[in-house]
Amino acid sequence: MATAVETLGKLERRMTISFPLAEVRTEVEKRLKQQAKTAKAPGFRPGKVPLKMVAAQYGYQIESDVLNDKVGRAFNDAANENELRVAGFPKIDAKDDSPEGVLSFDATFEVYPEVSVGDLAAVEIETVKADVSDAEIDKTIEILRKQRVHYHTKGEAGEHGDGGAPIAANDDRVTVDFTGVIDGVEFPGGQAQDYAFVLGEGRMLPEFEAATIGLKVGESKTFDLAFPEDYHGKDVAGKTAQFTITLKQLEWAHLPAVDAEFAKSLGIEDGDAEKMRADIKVNLEREVAGRVKARNKEAVMDALIKVTDMEVPKVMIEQDSERLAEMTRQDMTQRGMDVKNMPFPQELFATKAERRVRLGLILSQLVGDNKLQATQEQVKAQIEDFAQSYEDPKEVLKYYYSDRRRLAEVEALVLEENVVNYVLGKAKVTAKAVAFDELMGSNAQA
């Protein structure tokens, strides 16, 4: 039996669950006898082990299982009887003041909040839009050319020229030896031999690159370099070192011409440059559409949070924090990092978890109230859209439809999109044009 539900806070509740001790003993004895039928012990045939020995070996676990089953069943029955929507799992504590022959437990738990989304018609949302112009296509081609760069010794004549005067300049790849000292003493990480880097890429500190520019092979230069206060090397951060560098090799960058061969390297079989540009434009437009959708989704989610005032169950935030911590641990492990003994405090993930839980509750309410569930047709269309960027679209369809969890992920994306479209259809929306570079530099995540 369970007592009346006691309200401890906006979402926190408590009830006391009680049942006769005799019921527990009867069930424990029943399960022990069942266990005895297959129990094994040295010197006894299976099923012939004395009950006392079975109880000694399995009694504690069986008693624990019986108590968990009875408490869980009693709690669920009481929650259903009181029409409670329980969030997470209850905290169960045994009571010390139970009457003789009775076992009593306090179950403390939280319930789901009432979710009442505000007036969406009064919500103002700014969405973004962006276009792909010839300038963006040209920039992308330049990036693709740089990805296919190859280097030649500067100053030596070759198939592609000599690269100009043999003096180090931006975009050249240099190989140097260097030694750094602070107060006349070498420091860890301040020396290297045959160290290669490309001038102008920003891999080295500005003073280092400036000192290298203008050198010829075999020349050396000594210069001062002030490490920034926030430099990653704490032992040298904020200090000034004196470096000596020697240029050992100098190479100039040769970028491939934008011709038929270049187009073929990008998958255009006949080498048609116009087809290449059209293909690049399609890919850029797909990427832009994805970024725009992500930014607009983020704006909608922010608006929903602002317009919906509610308490969020702490237990759900804790559970999601644990999930995020484990996901982070797995991701870092897959990247080759040893995080076995690294702590992942839940508070690091609490803010993100609270937002995720809050949005989950809001979206669930909106979907249920407005019938925004993902349809099979929408899910299939979404998967087909994913498949467009792959060589074998049929394999992509098979990949998703062969695994219910993958399919559920797509359903969740479609559901969110349904909510976004529903909200945008109700709210006061203004569209803002954003620059291509700004959009591609953003990492919006809902």
UniProtKB/TrEMBL annotation:
Which GO BP terms, alphabetically?
Answer: 'de novo' cotranslational protein folding; cell division; protein transport; protein unfolding
Keywords of this entry: Cell cycle, Cell division, Chaperone, Cytoplasm, Isomerase, Rotamase
Subcellular location, in the record's words? Cytoplasm
Catalyzed reactions = [protein]-peptidylproline (omega=180) = [protein]-peptidylproline (omega=0)
Q: Where is the PPIase FKBP-type domain?
A: 171-256
Q: Which domain of life is it from?
A: Bacteria
The EC code for this enzyme is: 5.2.1.8
| InterPro entries in alphabetical order | PPIase_dom_sf, PPIase_FKBP_dom, Trig_fac, Trigger_fac_C, Trigger_fac_C_sf, Trigger_fac_ribosome-bd_bac, Trigger_fac_ribosome-bd_sf, Trigger_fact/SurA_dom_sf
Q: What are this entry's molecular-function GO terms?
A: peptidyl-prolyl cis-trans isomerase activity; protein folding chaperone; ribosome binding
Gene3D superfamilies assigned to the protein according to its UniProt record, in alphabetical order? 3.10.50.40, Trigger factor ribosome-binding domain, Trigger factor, C-terminal domain
Q: Cellular component per GO?
A: cytoplasm
UniProt xrefs under Pfam families: FKBP_C (PF00254), Trigger_C (PF05698), Trigger_N (PF05697)
Relate the protein's function as given in its record. Involved in protein export. Acts as a chaperone by maintaining the newly synthesized protein in an open conformation. Functions as a peptidyl-prolyl cis-trans isomerase.
Question: What family is it from?
Answer: Belongs to the FKBP-type PPIase family. Tig subfamily.
Record's PANTHER family? TRIGGER FACTOR CHAPERONE AND PEPTIDYL-PROLYL CIS/TRANS ISOMERASE, TRIGGER FACTOR-LIKE PROTEIN TIG, CHLOROPLASTIC
Q: What is known of its domains?
A: Consists of 3 domains; the N-terminus binds the ribosome, the middle domain has PPIase activity, while the C-terminus has intrinsic chaperone activity on its own.
Protein name in UniProt? Trigger factor
Q: Which organism is it from?
A: Massilia eurypsychrophila
